[in-house]
Amino acid sequence: MSNRFHLAIAGGDLSITVPWYQTVLGCKLDMSEEGKWQDIDFWGNELTLHATSPRYEKGPERERHSVDTGYVSVPHFGIHLLLYQYNDVKDMVQAKAKFFDIPYTRFQNTSYQQETFFVEDPNYNLLEIKSIIKEKIY
To answer: Coil, strand, or helix at residue 69?
Structure first.
């Protein structure tokens, strides 16, 4: 049995979206079916980008929920990374793209303290990248 997580999302134009995951987030490619879908190694998890009609507009304003010191956009998905990995990805995003929500720290001085940021892929999928300082085992 595997504990690998799988998520399939609308990837829009894969010729644009797939390279973004490689160059901005540093993800590696896995299986694919040319022009239909591409698996992304999302830090040991399987993220599948399906070719869809590209979203040319974000649509309605995103709903935001108050979480400690920030307002989190929903829906979103993301990953918990070790601090050095988080910092590497943060640096790549800063150099090659832009933050949807800039990095900040929440739940300070608790066992849930984390640094987090949000980034949006070319098809307007929202991702949260975070590092938990003292991660709790689920």
So the answer is: coil
Token representation of residue 70: 């920030």
- The structural domains of the chain, with segments of one domain joined by +, span 6-51, 63-132
CATH class for domain 63-132?
Answer: alpha beta
Non-local (6+) Cβ contacts of 136 within 8 A are 111, 112
Residue range 24-73, pLDDT digits in tens: 999 999 999 999 999 999 999 999 999 999 887 766 678 899 999 889 99
Burial of 125 per CB tally in 10 Å (0-12, 13-18, 19+): buried
pTM of the complete model? 0.89
What is the rounded average pLDDT for all residues in the chain? 91
